[in-house]
Write a structure and sequence with these properties.
This protein has 5 helices and no strands. The chain is mainly α and about 110 residues long. Helix 3 runs antiparallel to helix 4 (about 60-70) and helix 4 crosses helix 5. The longest helix has about 35 residues, at about 75-105.
Amino acid sequence: MDSKEVLAENSKLFGENLPEVAKGFTELCQNIIFKDGNLSLKQKELIALAIAITVKCDGCIFHHAKACVDAGCTMEEISEMMEVCVAMGGGPATVYSGKALRIVKENIR
């Protein structure tokens, strides 16, 4: 997994080179999608982390694992969600779930 610093640098480069896309994506996520609605923010972050694990996106895993903790997800809830990831994603999901669990463990209160 890329380090936190590498992921931050990648994000910075993206923003510098595609500023309108970066701004639009950020606004979409922060102001429209990732807030309470029919699904709670907590549920949405669990879904986002499940997708990140299944598609093997290191940056997404880093972001949404921390966001799950910030949204109030427990280690038990995150672990149960990962059972579904393994059912749908097989062996690779076990590897990427482990990466996510490390980030959750570092950030959980």
